[in-house]
TrEMBL record:
It comes from Sulfurisphaera javensis. PANTHER family: FLAVODOXIN-RELATED PROTEIN WRBA-RELATED (PTHR30546), FLAVOPROTEIN-LIKE PROTEIN YCP4-RELATED (PTHR30546:SF23). The gene is wrbA. Belongs to the SsuE family. Isf subfamily. This is NAD(P)H:quinone oxidoreductase. It comes from the Archaea. Pfam families: FMN_red (PF03358). Signal peptide: none annotated. GO terms for molecular function: FMN binding; NAD(P)H dehydrogenase (quinone) activity. InterPro entries: Flavodoxin/NO_synth, Flavoprotein-like_sf, Flavoprotein_WrbA-like, FMN_Rdtase-like_dom.
Length: 179
């Protein structure tokens, strides 16, 4: 959730109106106690109306075995009505993730999320190498998007800078595409 907040701060610095939302958890109740849901319980759940409203998106997911969390996939599967009516076509999107280990699937998770964007005809906005901190970090992201090494409790300064850069970038692209 901290990466989402930093991305939001970067977008807000560019003048974007930001809504942080979450997907409904789909894990069985007996397994939910193993994940820190208390950190997101005050954040409203995303709706299809939120997707229509937004000019651009930053979509994130914890890494689950090198893949996106099932709850995000379940939500994205409900967006077929938006796809059918081309309601997300041309909108920019960027991706971010967190994994417990350096080689725990950061890049594969972001690439997995991006497949939805291709089907919608969205404009994928990567971080690229537009920020020098990417050459100085071993945990805070890469050209695909901001990431967090979940075995560390807090985001480090590099992770924060990369996430804010990503937020600014998605806001800049959304503003240009809307005009």
């Amino acid at each position: 959730m901290e990466l989402a907040k930093e991305i939001a701060k970067g977008a807000e610095e560019e003048g974007a109106e930001v809504r942080i939302k979450r997907v409904r958890e789909t894990l069985p109740q007996e397994l939910q106690s193993r994940i820190p849901l208390d950190k997101v319980e005050d954040i409203p759940e995303v709706t299809l109306e939120d997707m229509k409203w937004a000019d651009g998106f930053a979509i994130g997911s914890p890494t689950r075995y090198g893949n996106i969390a099932g709850a995000l996939k379940t939500f994205l599967d409900t967006t077929a009505v938006l796809w059918k009516d081309n309601l997300l076509y041309g909108k920019p999107v960027t991706f971010f993730t967190e994994a417990s280990t350096i080689h725990g699937g950061h890049e594969t998770t972001i690439l997995t999320m991006s497949t939805y964007a291709y089907h919608f005809g969205m404009v994928i906005v990567p971080v690229g190498y537009g920020i020098p901190e990417l050459f100085q970090t071993t945990t805070g992201g890469g050209p695909y998007g901001a990431t967090h090494l979940g075995s560390k409790e807090e985001l480090d300064e590099m992770e924060r800078k990369i996430a804010r850069f990503q937020g600014k970038r998605i806001a800049e692209v959304a503003k240009k595409l809307k005009s």
